[in-house]
Structures are given as C-alpha cells and as structure tokens.
Amino acid sequence: MSFRLLSLFIALVAGVFMAVQGSLNSRLGKVVGLWETTFIVHIIGLLTMVVILFVLKLGKGNLGAAPGAPWYTFLGGLLGVLIVYGVVTSIPKLGVATATTSIIVGQVLTALVIDHFGLFGLDKVPFSWIRLLGLALLAGGARLLLN
C-alpha cells in the first residue's frame, strides 16, 4: 500500500471516529452539560496521552522542544475545546450527517485558504477553480442534508 493511500485510509478512519465521537459527546452533553462534556473529553484525552507518552513511550521524545515552537502553534488546544463544544452543540440540533458535513465544508474552505497562502509554515498548494467547485459541491450536499 502506498504512503498516500495509507494516509487517505487514516483520514477516512479519523472521519469515522469524528462522527462516532461527536455522537457520543452529544449524548454525554445531554446528561452532564455542554461545557462539562468538553471538559470530560479533554481530561480523558489527557489521560490517554499520558499513557501513550509516558507508559507506552510511543512519542519521539521531543516534548522538551515545545518551548521552541512558534507561539501560535499552541492555539490548537484552545481550538480543540471550541471544536468539541461546537460538535456537541450542533449534532443534537442538526443530526450527525448534517453537522459533520457542515464541519467538513468549514474545514475544506479553511484548508483551501491555508494551502493557497502556505500559512503556518506549510507548503503552498495553489488555488484552483476545480477545488472551489469541489467545495461548492460539498456545500450543496450539506444544504441537501438539511431537508
């Protein structure tokens, strides 16, 4: 299996996990509340990472290099909280399929901008009209799911 195909498969599995996670988190949110669910999800994530890094020692061992990273790279933690909250809020109101599709449209739109300008030190991937058409088709699909 090529590296590209493996990467696509991993992305597909991540998408599956996202839909399941959003559903589970939304159910938990009905029991304990939205912000409380976000807190619980991140505590469990932290404990999982403690096991992965310090018990199983699966990391690269570069945690000490974190202070040398650009300041804005640490905003991922803040964004993670907002993402979980947004998913937990939207799924009960829209359904898993519509909420997930809407999330993906937002991701692709933002990814097109990040790619085109090479933001955050990433390689530039030029804008193309075919990519915009792909985004428009995704958005149209999201709209169809609302009915």
Model description:
It is a single chain. The chain has 147 residues and is an all-alpha fold. The chain has one domain (3-145). It is 76% helix and 0% strand. It has five helices and no strands. The protein has helices spanning 3-32, 34-55, 75-94, 96-117, 129-145. Helix 3 (75-94) packs antiparallel against helix 4 and helix 4 (96-117) runs antiparallel to helix 5 (129-145).
Question: How would you summarize the topology of this molecule?
Answer:
Layout: H1 3-32, H2 34-55, H3 75-94, H4 96-117, H5 129-145
Helix pairs in contact: 1-2, 1-3, 2-3, 3-4, 4-5
Task: Average the pLDDT over all residues and give the rounded result.
Answer: 92
Helix/strand class: mainly alpha
CA gyration radius, whole angstroms? 18 Å
The count of helical stretches stands at 5
Tell me the series of helices and strands, N- to C-terminal.
HHHHH
Tell how many strands the DSSP assignment holds. 0
Low-confidence stretches: none
How would a crystallographer describe the biggest sheet? Answer: none
Distance between the termini: 39 Å
Percent helix among the residues? over 70%
Q: Assess the beta-strand content as a share of residues.
A: under 5%
Rough outline:
globular
How many domains, as an integer? 1
